[in-house]
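Below is how a single chain appears once it has passed through the pipeline. First comes the sequence as given, then the structure the pipeline wrote out for it. We keep one example in the README because the format questions we get most often are answered faster by looking than by reading.
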Amino acid sequence: MTVQQVSPMNADPGAAKASRGQRRAEPSRRRQGPAPVAPFVDPLYAAQAGWEVWLGGRLPAEEIAARRDARLRATIEFARAYSPYYRALYRELPPTDEVVIEQLPVVHKRGLMQHFDEVVTDPAVTRAGVARFVADPRRIGRPFLGRYAVWSSSGTCGEPGYFVQDGRALAVYDALELLRFRAVNAAAGAATVWAPHRFALVAAIDGHFAGIATLRRLVLLYPWLAATTRAFSLLQPVAALVAELNAYQPSVLATYPTAAEMLADEQEAGRLRLALNEIWTGGECLPRPVRARLARVFGCAVRSAYGASEFLSIGWECTHGRLHLNADWVVLEPVDARNRPVPPGVPSHTVLLTNLVNRVQPLIRYALGDSVTLDRDACPCGCALPSMTVEGRHDDVLVYARADGAAVKLLPLVLCTVMEDEAGVNDFQLVQPDDRVLRVRLGRAERGCARRVLHALRAHLDTQGLGHVRVTVERIGPQRDPRSGKLRRVQVLRGTA
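Resulting structure:
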């Protein structure tokens, strides 16, 4: 993909217009970029973003590619001008309008977090400041420095991440959610864009994760949503969660596929009594049998979306069940283990993400870690945005029996949240060898945290009525699959009772 020269009319608003001399400037001569847009107080740009998102979903493929290339060029120009990290990284590259995207180096979470203060384009944003901000749960969804959103990642690759989003990015994410994902649901006969509904987010809600932080930001922005928008913690006992949902009676439920399947168990057993219009899933792979079961048990539409802390709204599902890439706002490159492009129809080893709208923390050819397969054929829905299949997380759900014989499901995303937020570790693996033991494998740098890990897991198991389950720390570290090389962080060993 060549980054084409574009006219100012096609460039993204706020794009840097640095001279070649500015591009070659030394990192020590750092300049702050144009004043960022405050995420809560810019209706003008929000309206412009809404128009661009609405129009982009109706354009032919050639025009979508032209807009993508214009935004890509603006993103690279901006990073070269205002990010010391990217300025140094791209120092030997040709001018931006001559660059082919495959020439750009691949970046990884570990490196970006280690050089956080050099990556960001606003000198007021520092890793130390962000860390202090996310340490306070009372600030979830509130603006950092009065103008940015901050999300923390789950650290699924053994490295936690902090992602700062500016107002332009938030406006685009909101528009993509409203005008593509929700508008498609309305076209399918589910809840409409504007129709009133009672929305429930069932997730980990005690950290600065993208989902809960976005929900709370929107409630702050639109206070009237508080009456019909609520979040429920997955870390509480299932019986307590079921009681809260029964009392609230949502019409739209958003959660992880594994959590939705657990709630389907409760619905079938008659303990959960919900009359839902829609279920929205994300964060994990949604297998076809699970989708079919959710639709049958709850008697409603089941929709899936693809997003990340790095870019909230990567893909949305159309009425034909295809997952469409928002290719006018994000570049997603499926590549093999050597970062070479793979053709449509071939599953990638990983995928490289370039965020085309966020300016405060540029992400250009960022290794996201997911396996993505681009579809070979056009989607029957007629949308020119490419469609794809995403292989998300495939961790196991652990199942133990309480003393009274009732089965308790421990969801992988919940267990990972306990390990990361409560125990403070990121390089780990949880293994269930039988129905009475939970084994913990810690990376070399995390082994000094064994006591804290045992305490956090013990507390969580006790709240689930699993006080008899023994937690042990093994001497070996996390073990990757010998064939795929992938790490399954939560795993049931074969033969588990």
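DSSP finds 14 helices and 20 strands in the chain.

See the next section for the split statistics.
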